[in-house]
Amino acid sequence: MPLNQSDQRDAPPLFIVAGMFGNVLNLRHLALPFASERRVFGVQARGLIGETEPHRDVAIASRDYLAEMQRLQPEGPYLIAGYSGGGITAYEMARQLRDAGHEVAVVAMFDTPLPVRPSLSRPDKALIKLAELKSKGPAYLVEWAQNRWAWEMRKRNEDTAPDAPAGAEFNNLKIQDAFLEAVGKYQTPDWDGPLTLFRPALDLHWPVTGGRFVSKEREYVFEDNDWRRYAPQIEVIEVPGDHDSMMLAPNVTTLAQELREVIARALDDGSDDWQQATAAQ
Fold first, then answer.
1. Architecture of the domain delimited by 14-117+172-202+222-276
2. Could you tell me which residues are beta bridge partners of residue 16?
3. Alpha carbon of 196 to those of 37, 95, 199: distances in Å?
4. How far apart are CA 274 and CA 281, in angstroms?
């Protein structure tokens, strides 16, 4: 799906995979600053609208998305990115492209987590509860009980909720369920190619064992979102905002500029190859 009105054909386009809910609408803010230099396309999840079943396998989804992408750009160098969970699909797309002999110049992730993040250990859960109890006193126990009750009610409502009405605009829950199933069984491969992670400032909320930190969302905090163990060449760039607002004005201006510089560096040596490839088409 085109995300800007660029008519540039002398520069490789940028493809951005949507996040967990599969909707590309929030990506248009990032695409607009590139209108004068390159086309930007959003990769929207299959089944977001209508009755088509969504993908439930990352490798298969990547294969299908690549088939569509290569109708627009048959040859590299390729510029691939993904927002949040969409970065996992972008990662797999890059792997498949390189295995097929294509050049992948840029793989960019916008605050993408690992497909399966490590669970909090019991000692660390205990440390967090102790810190909350010290900070809030007896009120924390009341808060914990209320949150637990709210969670139980949400779970019960989800299990008994009727199906969405026919013609609903977006199949958000169906897409989310399929995405979680897909990434839950994805075996992350190693990647020694280019990879840039753009992420907001780290949320070092609770100190826990081993010198580690846990975020407000109760997840372990890693400077590289824990990707370096699979992709040793990863570059990490901190940008303003949080997980959502980094993609929106005014923060997205900084993100666009940082991404522009990453693309320029990557294409600096391959610009002649791209011009020759497009001239031959």
1. 3-Layer(aba) Sandwich (3.40)
2. 42, 81
3. 20, 15, 10
4. 11
Residue 36 · residue 60 · CB < 8 Å: no
Token pair listed for 138 = 């007896």
Q: Judge contact between 39 and 4, C-beta under 8 A.
A: yes
Yes or no: say if 178 and 80 are a contact pair by the CB < 8 Å rule: no
- CA dihedral 233→236→242→247, nearest 10 degrees, is -80
| Under 8 Å between Cβ of 218 and 128 | yes
Closest alpha carbon to 237 in 115, 88, 108, 81: 108
Q: How far apart are CA 35 and CA 165, in angstroms?
A: 38
Cis, bond preceding 123 (omega within 30 deg of 0): no
Q: Give how far Cα 174 sits from Cα of 21, 45, 53, 147, Å.
A: 9, 11, 9, 25
Give a three-class secondary structure readout of 2-47. Answer: ECCCCCCCCCCCEEEECCCCCCCHHHHHHHHHHCCCCCEEEECCCC
Q: How do the pLDDT tens digits run along the chain, 281 residues long? A: 999 999 888 999 999 999 999 899 999 999 999 999 999 999 999 999 888 999 999 999 999 999 999 999 999 999 999 999 999 999 999 999 999 999 999 999 999 999 999 999 999 999 998 888 777 666 545 454 555 555 454 544 443 333 333 444 678 889 999 999 999 999 999 999 999 999 999 999 999 999 999 999 999 999 999 999 999 999 999 999 999 999 999 999 999 999 999 999 999 865 445 555 554 44
**Cα angle, residue 197 at apex, residues 91 and 7 outer, rounded to 5°:** 75
CB 102 within 8 A of CB 78: yes
Measured CA angle at 262 (ends 231, 82), to 5 deg:
60
The rounded distance, in Å, linking the Cα atoms of 185 and 176 is 15
